[in-house]
Write a structure and sequence with these properties.
The complex is a heterotrimer of chains A (165), B (345) and C (503).
Chain A: H1 2-25, H2 30-40, H3 54-63, H4 75-86, E1 104-108, H5 118-122, E2 128-129, E3 137-138, E4 158-162
Antiparallel strand pairs in A: 1-4, 2-3
Helix pairs in contact in A: 2-3
Chain B: H1 17-27, H2 29-39, H3 42-64, H4 69-74, H5 77-88, H6 96-111, H7 123-134, H8 136-140, H9 157-166, H10 175-178, H11 183-192, H12 197-201, H13 214-231, H14 237-256, H15 264-268, H16 273-280, H17 291-311, H18 318-335
Helix pairs in contact in B: 1-13, 2-13, 3-5, 3-6, 5-6, 5-7, 6-7, 7-18, 13-16, 14-16, 14-17, 17-18
Chain C: E1 36-40, E2 50-51, E3 58-59, E4 64-67, E5 76-77, E6 82-94, E7 97-108, H1 125-134, H2 147-151, E8 160-165, H3 174-181, H4 183-197, E9 201-207, H5 211-224, E10 229-234, H6 243-251, E11 266-270, H7 271-283, E12 289-296, E13 303-308, H8 313-319, E14 329-332, E15 339-340, E16 354-358, H9 378-381, H10 388-396, H11 400-405, H12 416-420, H13 427-502
Parallel strand pairs in C: 8-9, 8-11, 9-10, 12-16
Antiparallel strand pairs in C: 1-7, 2-4, 3-6, 4-5, 6-7, 12-13, 14-15, 14-16
Classes of the chains: A mainly alpha (165), B mainly alpha (345), C alpha/beta (503).
Chain lengths: 165, 345, 503
Amino acid sequence: MATATVIFAGIAIVLAILLIVSSHYLSTTENEVIDKIESLLPRIQCAQCGYPGCRPYAAAIVTDKADINLCPPGGNETVRRLAKFLGSDFSPVTKYSTTANLNEIAFISEELCIGCNLCLRACPVDAIVGTHQSMHTVISDHCTGCRLCIPPCPVDCISLVSRNA
Amino acid sequence: MNFPINSSPHVLPITSVPIIMRHVLYALIPSTIVYVWYFGFGIFINMLIASIAALISEAIMLRIRNRPIKPSLADGSAIVTAILIAFSIPPLAPWWLPVLGASSAIVLAKHLYGGIGANIFNPAMVGYAILLLSFPVQMTHWIPPQIENLGFQNIDLWSTVLYSVTGSLPSNLNLDAITQATPLDIVKGGLKNGISINELRSGPLFSQLGGYGWEWINIFTAFGGVYLLYKGIIRWHIPVSLLTSITIFAALFYLYDPNQNLSPSFHLLSGATVLGAFFIATDPVSAAATNQGRLIYGASIGALTYAIRTWGGYPDGLAFAVLLMNLMVPLIDRFTTPKIYGQQQ
Amino acid sequence: MLKYPLFQSFYGGVHLESHKNTSNHKQIARDFLPSRLIIPMNQQFGSDAIPSVKVGQLIQKGEVIGKPAEKNTTAVHASCSGRVGAIEKHPVPTAGKVSTSTCVIIETNDENNIAAQKPPLFKNHLDKLTAINHAGIVGLGGAAFPTAEKLNRKSSHCEMLILNGAECEPYISCDDLLMQEHATEVLRGALAMMEIVGAELTVVVIEKDKPKAIEAISNAIETIGSKCIRLTDIPTMYPTGGERQLVEALTGKEVPSGKYPIDVGCICQNVGTAYALDCFFQLGEPLINRIVTVTGQGVKNPQNVAVPIGAPIVELIKFCGGYDGEVSQLILGGNMMGYTVDTDQLPVTKSTNCIITTKKATTPKPFEIWPCIRCGECIPVCPVRLLPQQILKAYENKNFEELGKLGLSECIECGCCDVVCPSHIPLVENFRKAKHLRMQEIKSSELSNAAQKRYELKTQRLSSQHANTEKLHADLKESIKESSKNDMIKAAVERSKKRRDKK
């Protein structure tokens, strides 16, 4: 009886020490979790989730328990990954019906563009070049298809085209 | 003319799961015959009951899981599990023993993990372990070899069936008189009580090489195993490493003290050693995947079996050794990944 | 002389039913003249050739009809005399699938006069390589890599030229027959290649199941009397004929991932390519013919045929007696790595080595596919030493990181794992899909990373701009404040002065 007690107490102590040590060295800070969540997002900064960018959204998921299905460009695949990482349930993206898609890019119609510069400022990744009073154009390699340039355009000259076309 | 488009390679595979399972069943025929010769027709009753129970539980589980029933039932894996369970329970057993064994193997070990191919543990051994832990009395009531001049009371087919169905024997038979412990059990108990190996082995249940009758069952099981090797159903790595490691351990301790330790031949030819080496540990789903990993896996099972037999609480440790090593398989697989062609590591 | 121990085996592989005797007992048929040629411009790695003929033009056999678009690509020649019927887009079998390419369509006539055939003369080494490109010579083993380009790997020294006559794929026997009938020419071509690359040794590799070819080549080696050609017969094992496997089998070395055999001092060339090179050097004949094995249960007279490039498959099948009953599949290449096509209206290209017509189903039906039982049979047969079962699992879990670690991109799609899988899982098909998905995943994550970087840069720029503006405003305000204060005081002083003055 005594030996058994000693053995089990010993095991308990060893395991407790292990747990304490590992929690000390292997702990994750909130920032690391946010980093990881951000890396799972498409990071195209489209703000369609309602937060100003991908990192704010990631932070909101961690701190405010924001829903994980708010990212239209990431689609259900991203929700699946987030759900797997956070151990929460999957629910499909419902937020917007017009989903942005990584396979699309913005295209500025040259005939219509008046060189107002508004889209330039809206672009989160500096993928539009141009200057006042002259035609703008989209650098297709940099465009993420986030659609943020579409609403500011006064002449509706921006449309989305397939990335490979 | 329009032709269909298919993905390469344009050649049919050379074997299939049902073919493999069928060959495993063929390979068990010789040992079954010898088994019946020594222990009577009881095993047939158990095989029948276990198979029916396995198929029924397989069908129910497939239904619950919304999987196609017919192909999975027809692949024969449930039957193989059932037959292996029938081999591991006593020939004289009440009907619910094989039923419980087979159905828990199929339900708990196989389908709760995701069906064929997804189980972590060997289903037959899970079934056996559950039976052994839950019903130690029924599971250790073995009958002695049914050979006239051994001096034991024998039991006929009709009484076996009666016992299986009703759980009681005809009035002229007494359960205690009919059943005996297995040779490994006798050795285990005897050594505990300070009786030397030599004295123990002079008993009627022992022969020159191992347990009486058991040595021939094991040898004929090995013939079946060689058939599987010849047919390419299993590879040599697991049986060879398992048998080698058990032999080495037994030999070392036997040379150290032959009076307290059983000889290698006894270890090889008693209990489930050979059945385990060729039919149980080689279950592909729960075994290591690479050849190198299989050597480690087999050798570890051999060592663990010897350890449990010698120092553990159970006379035969093969089932537990297999289950323990099943747990280690992902780790073994990770460490035995072959180096990819053209990639320096 | 012989620096390497000539090993004879490589890791993995399977023995397959060879099916070669369906087609290898007849001599190569050389009298096939199609009525029409569809000559594609995209028969090689790299940019397509540019058509250099006009519709209606009369052309001679061997005349250039497509000019190389770049320096190190090859020209295309007319394989028969005739009149250019059209230059149009036409479906063409290319690298594993049917795609559309510009084709020159020639209505042949039977004049068959050959344009300017005389042995070419070269001023220098470079001249020779350019000439090989202009003769349209590409690797005839199936990949159609420009031969001159392969022989021009100057970066490392080539010690051994491996002349690949292994022909490990079932059904195909075109190299076998070529070696039997043209052993001397093949070896002469090999010697020419050796001279170009500066190798000291040529090893002709033939699988043991081609005794006639082995005999012919060894006789030819004796006749030529060259001491730097060696013949090695290797065990019949699929896929020995793969470049990397061949190098491993012969030298025991592995070609590093992402590199070429030349990086370990070897160059592999197909025997057919050597023959084509010899034809060009001896006769000035560009690559306008190739030997194609027409075989399988679905064709009446299976045999090897010397086919003008661009001949429609349907005419080739007719030449071989036509279809024998209902044909279930048309496979281009061998049955292991070849691909099915949906129509026989396609042309034979420089990479078409075999046409198989099957009558039975060659793909397992869905109800015959079981889940993986982890039997591990796929592991020892994989020539790249991958773990197919674990790759499959990672693919099912969409675990792209794991797929990368397991070496998915190294898979050569040889199909050995498919053949031995008792669960009949179409592994190679899954791996192809997995490769595709993984590439997409990598692309989109690259896009995401780039987007994030640019976003961060923009935010940084904006915030620093903002900070600058703020600072500017603050400074201005400050200076206005300062200046206006003084002004106001001054003004007040002035005003009071003025008032005082009035009084």
